[in-house]
Amino acid sequence: MTSDCPDFAISSSPAPGTTGTVSFTVDELSLVQGSCEVSYDVRAAPGLSLPGTFPNTATLTWYSALAGNPESRRGDLVASNQLISLIFANLSKVVTGTSVPGTDDSQLTDDVTDLAIGERVSYQIVAAFDEGTTNAAQLQDTFEALAPNGPSLEFLAGEVIFVGDNVSTSNPVLSPTPVGNVVTVDFGTVVNSADLVLDQNDTIVFELVARVANLPANVSGVSLNNSVDLDFAGGSASTDVEVEIVEPVLDVTKTFTYLTYGVATIVVVLSNSVNSPGY
Q1: Residue 114: how many CB atoms within 10 A of its CB?
Q2: How far apart are the C-alpha atoms of 19 and 34, rounded to whole Å?
Q3: Res. 271: pLDDT tops 70
Q4: Distances in whole angstroms, Cα of residue 196 to Cα of each of 38, 45, 134
Q5: How far is CA 204 from CA 22, 213, 229, in A?
Q6: Which residues pair with 241 in a beta bridge?
Q7: Is the dihedral of CA 67, 70, 72, 74 positive or negative?
């Protein structure tokens, strides 16, 4: 607690980590100074229900003369305000690895991951929760499906690889449920114990592995979207990642040299002229 009020002193306050009333005294507030300020921090309780409105009231009592003067007049004033707490969540998703070392992110669109047919790709999804309680939290990851051939990215595996120290979920089994081209992880109620710092301890990290399906619609130059949504009571967050398909186009030519004394040399030339290695 800090103040520029003259002779500021704390009369009583609740113990750290508890609720209650803070009382303090101030000496004469002169016309010269005009005003003074008291400020202090409060921490959200771990079970704070979001969204919510939380009132706070300040009561001021003063006297027209020094204490003990029987002719002094007392004054009272009440000021109040409300803390409106909303639910926020941050969501990020990145490609963390691929299975074909010869592909990169430079063949078609710069900084967009290139994938060959049959190549596996790993994504990391980080959901950061606001401090307090978030109800009905559910993560849904959607693979782009180029009809009528089904999902162009196939789900292979997924798991929650990290839960922050401040975070707990009402659903103890955080395993993915794939249905068609949608993978769902149901967190249930998420409680993020307050420490007034947003860091990795406020996050849940999900790792997802997919594969580019060997389908007629998957050809070089096609862009495949993988989107993720975090839905919860009172809000939502979403993001997505694009990848692009690359393919090798190999050619072979065969020539003979002139036949000399019954011997000829055969020359076979292999070439790859497009945007992905051939194996």
Answers
A1: 22
A2: 31
A3: yes
A4: 20, 11, 16
A5: 36, 28, 14
A6: 226
A7: positive
Find where tokens 């998420």 sit. 190
| Cβ atoms < 10 Å from Cβ of 218 | 20
- pLDDT of 207: 92
C-alpha count within 13 angstroms, C-beta hemisphere, residue 75: 6
Per the document, the length of the chain is 279
What SS3 state is found at 201? Answer: helix
Rounded-to-10 torsion of CA 96, 100, 106, 111: -10
Q: Cβ of 171: how many Cβ atoms within 10 Å? A: 14
DSSP H or E stretch at residue 114? strand 113-115
- Token pair 């009561």 is found at 59
State the residue for tokens 């945007």. 275
Q: How far is CA 201 from CA 99, 107, 265, in A?
A: 30, 38, 68
Question: pLDDT tens for residues 206-218?
Answer: 999 999 988 888 8
Q: Dihedral angle at the C-alpha atoms of 87, 162, 194, 240, nearest 10 degrees?
A: -20
Q: Which residues contact 45 (CB under 8 A, 6 or more apart)?
A: 19, 132, 194
pLDDT digits 0-9 by tens, 46-102 = 555 555 567 788 898 888 887 677 788 888 898 887 665 545 578 999 999 899 888
Residues near 75 by Cβ (< 8 Å), separated by ≥ 6? 60, 61, 62, 63, 64
